[in-house]
């Protein structure tokens, strides 16, 4: 594994943190090091990479890919192809599991509410409705044009589930079929790894950091109002310090892998950006692991603590009003040397 390297105290333009803030950040990265499986992290302060480990590695990021769907949907709103006021159908033809908002609802609701449910509540039915409406290939075209080469999205989350539990490629088990698998735990075929090249939800820390830096700078939109709407939908207060603006999307879950019908593949991810003064801090944390315990729910509190603690440490090292290229000019001797932290 490439070591985490934070070049603190360099005067070559590399992002700087004072020694106490860097030591606090190290503490949280050490905790992340103890997580099972494969870890990836990248943190950029302004235009400078502060921390990077395995950041180009493609991993399963689960619902973190939903941000790309929202982005393309809002781009299509700008182009007049769709409207956030349009009423979209909610019924069993699009229903799927892990839908805390729409699972038991039938009827129509505005597209705006679909986008909100997809990001704020990570509702999979909302995701599939939006993806059906905007078109998965249009989202893939946007991803390719943005140069996000490690990012892959499924045709729908329901098709991903169907493929994962052993249905033939291209087969959608439907809501009745999904329920049958969940209730009986009998799979239609040999299970497939969630990270694959057919139906998956994958990306890399590099891709997600690049995307959020550019999206939140307005690069993908033509109108300021569209960026404002993107930010509104992505506003988050779980992974950020108090009284700090934060935008992002994460993912988590447990899936069958390649042995029986036991959930043995787990993933946790979060990517986004906070702003301290005028300085954007853009980041991504991802972990994938294989074992029955701990599952993603058990590890989630520790994951949140690592991400939020890291952001709090960085915030303390960035004085209000700091610019993206002049971070800290006063640092102690301990922060003058490169620090390396191995993440096996």
Task: State the distance separating the first and last CA atoms.
Answer: 6 Å
Report the uncertain regions: 1-15, 323-344
What's the helix count?
A: 10
State the assembly state of the protein chains: single chain
Read across the widest sheet, the strand sequence of neighbours is 3-2-10-9-8
Q: Helix proportion of residues, in percent?
A: 25-40%
Please tell me the overall pLDDT: 88
What is the N-to-C order of secondary-structure elements (H for helix, E for strand)? EHEEEHEEHHHHHEHHEEEHE
Largest sheet: 5 strands, antiparallel
Structural class designation: alpha+beta
Q: What integer value in Å does the Rg equal?
A: 20 Å
Note the beta-strand portion.
15-25%
| 3D shape | globular
TL;DR of this structure?
This protein has 344 residues and is an alpha+beta fold.
Give an overview of the whole structure.
- With 344 residues, this protein is of the alpha+beta class.
- 35% of the residues lie in helices and 20% in strands.
- The chain has 10 helices and 11 strands.
- The strands form 4 sheets. A 5-stranded antiparallel sheet has the order 3-2-10-9-8, with helices on both faces. A two-stranded antiparallel sheet has the order 1-11.
Keywords:
10 helices; 5-stranded antiparallel beta sheet; disordered C terminus; alpha+beta; 344 residues
Write the layout of secondary structure elements.
Elements: E1 4-6, H1 19-33, E2 38-45, E3 48-53, E4 59-60, H2 66-78, E5 87-90, E6 107-110, H3 111-120, H4 124-134, H5 136-145, H6 157-164, H7 174-184, E7 202-203, H8 205-215, H9 224-234, E8 246-256, E9 263-276, E10 279-290, H10 296-317, E11 339-341
Antiparallel strand pairs: 1-11, 2-3, 2-10, 4-7, 5-6, 8-9, 9-10
Helix pairs in contact: 1-10, 2-4, 2-5, 2-9, 3-4
